[in-house]
Amino acid sequence: MNRNRKKRSGISAAAIVSACSVLWLPTEIASAGDIAQGKSIAANGITGQAPCMACHGANGEGMAAAGFPFLAGLPAVYLEAQLVDFAQGKRKQAVMEPIAKALSAEQKKAVAVWYASLKPVIDPAHAVQLQDSYPKGKMGAWLAQRGDWSRGLPACVQCHGPGGVGVAPTFPALAGQSAMYIKNQLLAWKTGTRADDAHGLMAHLARKLTDEEIDGVSAYFGNDIGAAAASATTAQAGGQ
Ligand code: HEC
Ligand code: HEC
Q1: Topology of 26-117 in CATH?
Q2: pTM for this structure?
Q3: Residue 162 pLDDT more than 70?
């Protein structure tokens, strides 16, 4: 586990090829100072902006009903890249843009490292197990697990990991994000308001999905795998 996580220039081809091992635990290269600074930003915000916690939850668990994603346990490299993208307008989003612009490069890194250090919202081991038992007759589940090679659509889990638990540092977890948030992202790629992934992997895929398929995969990762894994682990949830 000695990948250089300080390199943070977005998605490189090498990162995609080598994205294979660790699910989270990105904190080993983070200094204690970064973590403390990030924790303070999450709790207090930065001048003139609401604290991250107000929307992303006290433990980075997000607010599913409002479409605010969880951040806890996502790879630090990924989180930091998203903040840069919001600030640069590559990911156009009215709420996050001013917040990301207000964060210095150092603050972006610190808050990314803090959220990456928090306990994931769902139990990855459990989500991985669920994928084996899940009925593959459902359209969303089928696309997620098998893809559709006749249309050049790889299975979501090929990149996002078994059960959609994510593969650090490049591929974020899908399991446990709300169906609404997942759907919003797929639509954003389809319409071009999210144009941030360096190799266009997601934009390319999203454009091939029908609206019905978008609903199907979003419900699968958000409601089915996500909720089932979360309900089994509620007692453990809650950050650090
Ligand atoms: C007023 C509510 C609000 C506040 C405050 C807020 N966020 Fe967000 N955040 C959102 C919303 C809404 C999204 C989803 C944007 C979208 O749909 O693209 C989001 C998305 C994100 C993402 C992308 C997550 C992903 O999985 O790609 C990151 C990273 C993020 N926020 C970090 C932060 C940080 C760090 C702070 C504090 C400095 C913060 N947010 C404060 C509402 C908020
Ligand atoms: C070829 C690899 C690949 C495949 C296959 C793939 N993804 Fe992705 N996905 C990515 C990458 C890379 C990102 C991160 C993009 C970024 O950095 O902004 C991503 C990000 C996402 C996000 C944003 C998550 C967040 O926290 O904002 C969603 C939602 C998503 N993918 C859904 C899907 C779905 C649904 C499928 C299957 C239909 C799928 N992906 C298949 C590579 C892939």
Answers
A1: Cytochrome Bc1 Complex; Chain D, domain 2 (1.10.760)
A2: 0.88
A3: yes
